[in-house]
């Protein structure tokens, strides 16, 4: 598995929130930073777990959660396809 950057993971997150909005806690574009961080944290836990299975180990090369949360939060209002 190729290493992911915060930007590529953000793209995967936004694809997920678009394709599966009912699987996310955040349901509106004006969500608070805390709500976004909580949703990203839960989503990222599942993502990193799956990445470990695909990579064949439990320590895949992924950026820290805080960096991913910052990347997603800064572009959330523009990229999220959730209710306004």
What attributes characterize this protein structure?
mainly alpha, 84 residues
Note down, in words, how this protein is organized.
The structure is a single chain. Helix content is 62%, strand content 0%. By secondary structure, the chain is mainly α. The chain is globular. The model has no long low-confidence stretch (mean pLDDT 87).
Span of the ends, CA to CA? 35 Å
Q: Would you report the number of β strands? A: 0
Rg calc: 12 Å
The count of helical stretches stands at 3
- H/E element order: HHH
Unreliable parts: none
Main beta sheet strand tally, sense and closure? none
Helix content class: 55-70%
Q: What would the principal axes of the Cα set say about the shape?
A: globular
Overall pLDDT confidence: 87
Strand content: under 5%
* Class by alpha and beta content: mainly alpha
Topology:
Layout: H1 6-19, H2 33-55, H3 65-79
Helix pairs in contact: 1-3, 2-3
